Amino acid sequence: MPRLPKKNEQPAPPKSSVGTRRSTARIVEKLPDFKSMYVNDIQVQTTPWDVRLILGRIDDVTEDEVPILKVVQLGEMHMSPQMAKQLLMILADQLAGYEGRFGPVLLPGSIQQKI
Fold this sequence. Notes:
Order of helices and strands: EEEEEHH
């Protein structure tokens, strides 16, 4: 009889019939200070060795002739370029699935023109 996954343990993916790749289980543990946050501003910095994402939330926009955004920085993530590329692939896959179910994600015109 197959073993059921424990709480917070992801079931192992099905074994591939191609090659000798082994499946592994994934155990997820949240630290006591784990935080979930909403971000609507991300700054990206790169070096040859890592990618840094600075996560923020737009707190205010002035109504001056040239509007100024007030951004509250909430945290940052550092990762290898390889992990950044994996994240890009995962996000593209997730967004494609989202758009398949709910329709296209529309961006403001100025951003859409850059894509």
